[in-house]
Structures are given as C-alpha cells and as structure tokens.
Amino acid sequence: MKKQLKVYMADDHTLFRKAMVNLLRGFEDVAEVKDAENGKELLTLMKYQAPDVAIVDLQMPVMDGVETCENILSKYPDVKIIILTMHDSERYILHMMEMGVHAFLLKNTEPEELEEAIHAVIEKDFYHNHLVASVLRKNVKDRRAGQRPVFSAAELTEREKEIVILVCQELTIKEIGQKLSLSENTVRNHRVNIMEKVGVNNMVGLVKYAYDSGLVK
Fold first, then answer.
1. What is the pTM of this model?
2. What is the tens place of the pLDDT at every residue in 43-72?
3. Which fold, 152-212?
C-alpha cells in the first residue's frame, strides 16, 4: 500500500487510547494519528480534515460508538470505520453491519490483526474476521431455529455467486478478475449489479447477505 494514511481514534480510557496512538504511529503506511476522548470530540476533529480510517470505541460517554458511526457514515461516507469493543455483542454487531461499519475488533486483538484490518478496509472496503463470521453464523442458526426467513441466493447467476464467495474470501477486485479470467471493470460492474439485486449498499452488507442466503456456511 503506497497511500500514507490518516487514522483517528476515539476511546474514553486515556491509558488505552494513548497506547493505541503509539501503536498506530508504528504501523507501516500510517502517516498521521489523532485521538479523541469521545465521539463528539472525534467529529470535531473531522470537521477540519477527515481521516482515511476512524477507530471507534463502542461504549463512550457524551456520544457513544453507535451515534458516532451514524454521524460519520452520513457526513463522511468515504471514511472507513473500525469498531473496537470489549464484548462480542451479536445485536450491536449486526445492527452496525447494516449501518455500514467496515470492521469489528475486540479490544484484546493482537496488534498485527489491527494493522491487517486497517489495510483491509482501505483495500477491500471491509475486514472479514472470525468475530464477524461467528456472529453471522449464529444469526443464520437463530433464524432457522426460530423459523424466521432465511434469504435465498436464487436470484443471482452462477457467476455472481462465484464473485460473492470470492469477496467473502477477501480477494480484491484485481485478484477476483485474475481468478475468473475477467477484467477488473467487469468484476466491478458485476459487484455493483449484485449489490443492487440483493438490496445492499456496501461490502459488509454483501458479506452478511452471503451468510443469510447460505452461499457461505
């Protein structure tokens, strides 16, 4: 990755936040790091210059992670959002995936995974880790157990299903094109058409659809 990234973070625990700032400054390709004590302060920072990535604690005073992300997504749609949380709350994660948040990490995540997540949300628009996969699998299981509707992938062509599966494997547009012998523009057009067909407007929504429809087990 050649781009020099601006990363902002919001967390109300001072020691944790300052340690994170020092960690982020040591990551390759991260050129600028700013921090805030809560969501309101983060949004104030963003008025002057929006970052490439915002790392947001889920539970904060003044303005919590959910409200903060709602504001970022509506005002700064190009900013990639990584949620940090102490708990793998299925309800919150599903809700925020539907909002359009790009990645979820537990606070005990290893530094290497945080760096991987930053690169993934920039390059692929989402980070598909074990936390997200486990929440999505449980959601599908609960749907079936409760006899709630599970979406069908029948409306997609076989080629479109292939592309969705490869997206869930975190391949880039270029890598999908190489694997399927398609141009990058063709893959990009397929992806837009797929998202329109299934009624989602971001890559995280597409991954959620893949689980709901049974394309990904």
1. 0.77
2. 999 998 999 999 999 888 888 888 999 999
3. Arc Repressor Mutant, subunit A (1.10.10)
- Region of 199 (left: φ > 0; alpha: ψ -120 to 50; beta: rest) is left
CATH number of 5-136: 3.40.50.2300
User: Which token pair is 10?
Assistant: 């919001």
| pLDDT tens profile 127-139 | 888 777 777 777 6
